[in-house]
Structures are given as structure tokens and as C-alpha cells.
Amino acid sequence: xxxxxxxxxxxxxxxxxxxxxxxxxxxxxxxxxxxxxxxxxxxxxxxxxxxxxxxxxxxxxxxxxxxxxxxxxxxxxxxxxxxxxxxxxxxxxxxxxxxxxxxxxxxxxxxxxxxxx
Length: 117
What we know:
The protein is 3% helix and 45% strand. It is built from 1 helix and 10 strands, in the order βββαβββββββ. A hairpin with a 6-residue loop joins β4 and β5. The longest helix has 4 residues, at 26-29. The protein is globular, with a radius of gyration of 13 Å. The N and C termini lie far apart (40 Å).
């Protein structure tokens, strides 16, 4: 059974940092590429970073140089270190495989990140 549990979100001031974690079931983690997505209010969910099994990383331009994705294959866990946070980073953050599941596919509950003074 697929399981994704995101954690680590919260309220932070602009310029602050957060570290998100995503614990996954083995069945999905064994898929080579995992990613972090985010969905801001009123907007579609978008991919912001992804990582291969061998830890090759790719970032959206909006987060490049500020966010770092990593994975611990032994713990079936994916992380997202977010530095220099901006108000426009405010969103619910989700992890999932890349490419994402199709319509009706499984998503975890996500973790809310709010950047505000």
C-alpha cells in the first residue's frame, strides 16, 4: 500500500529556513525519481525539485539556489531544505514520484509552509 507522510512545515519569517521530510512506503520509494511539489492557494500543484535514486537533482528556477532536495534510501525518506524563504514560497508541499500519479492517484496530506512577517 502506498503511503506518503510529509512533515516539517510551519510559519516562518521571510529569509528563514525550514526542513521538510517525507517518509514513504517502500513500494513508491523504489521508483527511481522522487520529487517535492507545492500548491499555492488558487493555483495548480507544481514540481519544485526532484531527485533520482543516484541523487542527481533538478530544481525549478523559482527555488534554485535556495532549496536542496536529498534522500536517504535506507530510510525511504526524502528531504527538502528550504533557505532564504520568500512569501511566494507559501504553499502546501507534497512529495510524490516523478512523473506524478494520474487523475485520482494517491497523494499524502501535505505540509503547510507559510512565509510571513
